[in-house]
Design brief:
5 strands, 127 residues, alpha/beta, Rossmann fold, 5 helices, 5-stranded parallel beta sheet
């Protein structure tokens, strides 16, 4: 299941980024929903679990790590890809932990090619 029926839920508090990701992923044939915060994301996951949760780590209120923890606890079958802006050497311990929590990690800023590659890989079980 690479495209077509695959559904992606984008969770980010930056509306512009959500819009850009929505356009990119829709153009590739994915069904896409967006959520501006963690609470909304959890509600959407309860309604219908996405195949991929594209999740910003740093958000006001409930952060991405808490959303990830709750999704994993609920045993919803979804792949989680973290988005993070923290990739410098000071953030290395945190990055190592993030890699254990999610199925993949994308550093901001990133290319369209990187996003599509990560999504395809988690859907194909290549990561």
């Amino acid at each position: 299941m690479v495209t077509g029926n695959a559904e992606i839920l984008i969770v980010d508090d930056e509306p512009h980024l959500c819009d850009v990701l929505h356009r990119i992923l829709t153009r590739e044939g994915y069904q896409v929903r967006t959520a501006p915060d963690g609470e909304t994301a959890l509600e959407l996951c309860r309604q219908k679990a996405p195949d991929v949760l594209l999740l910003d780590v740093m958000m006001p209120g409930m952060d991405g790590r808490e959303v990830c923890r709750r999704v994993r606890e609920s045993e919803v079958a979804t792949h989680i890809i973290y988005f993070t802006a923290r990739t410098d050497s000071a953030g290395l311990p945190k990055l190592r932990q993030l890699r254990h929590e999610a199925d993949a990690l994308i550093a901001k800023p990133c290319t369209t090619k990187m996003i599509l590659s990560k999504v395809r890989n988690v859907l194909e079980g290549a990561l």
